[in-house]
Amino acid sequence: MRKYLSLALLATMAIACAPKEEETAVDYTALSDEERLEIATQIAHETIMVDGHVDLPYRMKVGGFTLQREILDVSVRTPDGNFDFPRAKEGGLDAPFMSIYIPAGLQQTPGSSKALADSLILMTERLAETFPDQFAMAYSPADIEANFALGKVSLPMGMENGSALEDDISNVEYFHGRGIRYITLTHGKANLIGDSSYDTVRLYNGLSEYGEKVVAEMNRVGIMVDLSHVSDDTFKDALAITKVPTIASHSSVRAFTPGFERNMSDELIQAMAKNGGVMMINFGGTFIDSAYAAGSSAVREHLINYLAENNLSRGDSAAQAYISEYTAANNPFPTVQRVADHIDYVKDLVGIDYVGLGSDFDGVGDSLPTGLKDVSMYPNLIAELLKRGYSRDEIEKICYKNIFRVWQAVEDYAVSEKG
Fold this sequence. Notes:
Layout: H1 2-17, H2 33-46, E1 50-54, H3 56-62, H4 85-91, E2 95-101, H5 112-130, E3 135-137, H6 141-149, E4 153-155, E5 157-160, H7 170-177, E6 180-184, H8 209-221, E7 224-226, H9 232-241, E8 247-248, H10 266-275, E9 278-281, H11 285-288, H12 290-309, H13 317-329, H14 336-350, E10 355-357, H15 378-387, H16 392-417
Parallel strand pairs: 1-2, 2-5, 3-4, 5-6, 6-7, 8-9, 9-10
Helix pairs in contact: 1-2, 2-15, 9-10, 14-15
């Protein structure tokens, strides 16, 4: 054990002391798994790590927390969920984009989507105000860098579902003023902006006329255009209009999930790369492996039948023991290696400059892969990438440099538009 640790320490010392151009001389593939994980953990802690999508605000809302009540204390380790401050620090997560998630069902009631967005933004701000030693708001890459230097976890915000804009284009600038730095154009249903990948109804066969104006206005004020959730035609329409790079804040590769339009096809990945954008890989089981849905359904069906046949409820100790044992023996979950497969795919298809991390933690339920169950586990993914021959510079691009490049380009364009 001591020999392995000393080798790992020597390797990390060599990395720290070597000039930048010499870092690639370190052969991470020749190290043991234990050595790689130690180095991966160090890289995670030394490198800014941005995650494009974490659903903590809506997790708090579902948990019954409101602006009038005490908020969920994620400054300490929590017994459930995928995110809190201690686990974020263990995993090296520095800037999870807080998802201001607006359910598509609210579109039926004018004003309710915007009202929820305002509420979730206030709730996120209250986290930073309540726990100022742990969290800080962030509205730019520079803010994240400053917070990182202070050891704080940044809370940038992205709005998941442009339905919160309602039918008022001035709300684009309004939400920029409230701190929103990306807007996912649609969610589970078509909205006033355009068509959704999940919706069988195609109202516009892409963006609506209003949606075209929204994309242009997002460019003007400095909000990143997020193309996760949109239909293929909406995706292509947005790329044809935008003057700046776009993002997909939490999408994976469709080649691994044939027929799942929510993920991105090779054509869309290539189009986003040509646009200069970045695709941030979703960790959810249904997003990364088509076998997961079938496997989890089979396990679920067996357990339902077992409980019924034995007159048990899930709360019974005997039931819990059986569920745990059976699930472990028939584990339907993909592994961290599958997430690395998606990163490999994007890198091989278009290059390392167009891929990032968009976990969807707190948003995909109990579908996360083995080795990536919460925000403490990012080093497992970094270690897997090191094993596959990724350099430290490539990992830094995945962790933050690619999304910072896009974000800064969007900011710079907005400044130029203001004259």
